[in-house]
């Protein structure tokens, strides 16, 4: 058994040119945690999800590496946070997608794939070995469904 | 000082002086090229000094300045624990609000905070703590963080040059020569008080007068509650108590033959005791582990290796030869030698790591003592080296560790500080500070 046996081969995808406002609306409406971003050739580029939205509304100094560890002195309203999102809503999703999330090839061993899913705590893109083509996505739900129905 | 080494025989068919010199030059070149981590290079070179027979193991250990290492390690532990209480964020926000969030006023205040903290703590830690708050404030004001980060680099190096503990070159010089905290304070702090405001003038002319922010954005900064930045009041009290004792120890300790390393290590031990007193064994284990992780071990091992390499070179007598050559060029004139040391140190420190440079210069200047007479007579040379190497760090992005830390932070913040644009402004500014220091040195000591 391999990664391909538990992946969703037809995942919903976003395009790199999609604007943040459109992608935000889409993932909020459908309650997606994250979606893969692929270009016109089907090449995998990264992941955009609710965590990206949180990153856009929080102060940059707090979320960056070696930034502020705590910010109890900041008292902002929901409107303040929304205005921070509005500043970037017309920009493409590529400015905040995660591109360092680990991918697996379709023949990756099943248990190793599940271990990666457990450790990374987010859906895993399955990418063709010799190209960057996205073949599918493996979410907690895909894995759980396949295991329970076995 | 020197030597407990047995005279080295021919090494791999090479004269020991030549072997040590080649090893030293190679070490320098590798450090500059950053082909390998600098700690690895220094340690490997130190091992080769022993394996090659230039030094015995006993002599190598004797070459390590444990006073410098103890002072650095102790202060790193103290600052590492203290930062968790949020006092540094408090200071930065408090200073920004004191000037009603006026953009230029904030720059001046952050420069002052950075300079003072750099004088009392190490530069890297200071900029690591101040840079994120700077970005937070400039983001809120919707203005570029670049002028602020640029000014903070200068402030950290200028402030660091004011005291014994402010910058590694001063720690090394103080330890090698036996200078006290007060010696540095009375001799170097006055000139830094002149250089710092003078440095702000060109910064104002280049960026300051264009810094503007709307009242709404300034209000956002005014809304920050600085008191809430203090996340652990008990730790704050403990830390302030220990830091006060440590500073008192630095100021008074010299008269009681207390070395700075003893003071810093005692402070670290006391703060560890106070911080862990109410915790159970498991919690203590975690807390102590975290506290010791705050020590920059790369820097410590870099120092260990470097001390051995320079001691090996010193043992061959080549540094003494170079010292006499320099004195010959300056006609044994103290003024010319002091000014030359300051300018060469400044330019060298702008281009290469100032730590190996100072480590090499210390035995070199010690060798000059016989030509000038008593240790008191060569004191201007030590102040030249201290000012040149600390202020020289402002000349380029690679001139000091703190510069690289700020540059890395700016890069991640999407406002990169590039090498050449930085140097185009920083190098002339650094030369200005060296010119002012030369005038100060001339009129005060020469």
Report on the architecture of this protein.
The complex is a heterodimer of chains A (150) and B (446). Chain A is of the alpha+beta class and 150 residues long. Chain A has one domain (3-148): CBS-domain, CATH 3.10.580. Helix content of chain A is 34%, strand content 13%. A two-stranded antiparallel sheet of chain A has the order 1-2. Chain A is globular. The mean pLDDT of chain A is 91. Chain B is mostly helical and 446 residues long. Chain B has helices spanning 16-33, 38-51, 57-63, 66-82, 87-98, 103-120, 123-141, 146-160, 168-177, 181-187, 189-206, 215-222, 233-253, 260-276, 281-293, 297-315, 318-329, 334-351, 354-372, 379-392, 401-412, 419-445. In chain B, α4 runs parallel beside α14, α5 (87-98) runs antiparallel to α6 and α7 runs parallel beside α21. Chain B starts with 15 loop residues before the first helix and ends with a helix. The model of chain B is unreliable at 1-5 (pLDDT under 50).
Topology:
The complex is a heterodimer of chains A (150) and B (446).
Chain A: H1 20-29, E1 34-38, E2 44-49, H2 50-57, H3 60-63, H4 78-86, H5 110-120, E3 124-127, E4 134-138, H6 140-148
Antiparallel strand pairs in A: 1-2, 3-4
Chain B: H1 16-33, H2 38-51, H3 57-63, H4 66-82, H5 87-98, H6 103-120, H7 123-141, H8 146-160, H9 168-177, H10 181-187, H11 189-206, H12 215-222, H13 233-253, H14 260-276, H15 281-293, H16 297-315, H17 318-329, H18 334-351, H19 354-372, H20 379-392, H21 401-412, H22 419-445
> Helix segment count of chain B?
22
Distance N to C terminus of chain B: 26 Å
Average pLDDT of chain B works out at 90
Q: What is the fold-level CATH name, i.e. the topology of chain A?
A: CBS-domain
Return Rg of chain B in Å: 22 Å
Poorly predicted ranges of chain B (pLDDT <50, ≥5 residues)? 1-5
- β-strand amount of chain B: under 5%
Distance between the termini of chain A: 12 Å
Biggest sheet of chain A, open or closed, and with what strands and sense?
Answer: 2 strands, antiparallel
Tally of helical segments of chain A: 6
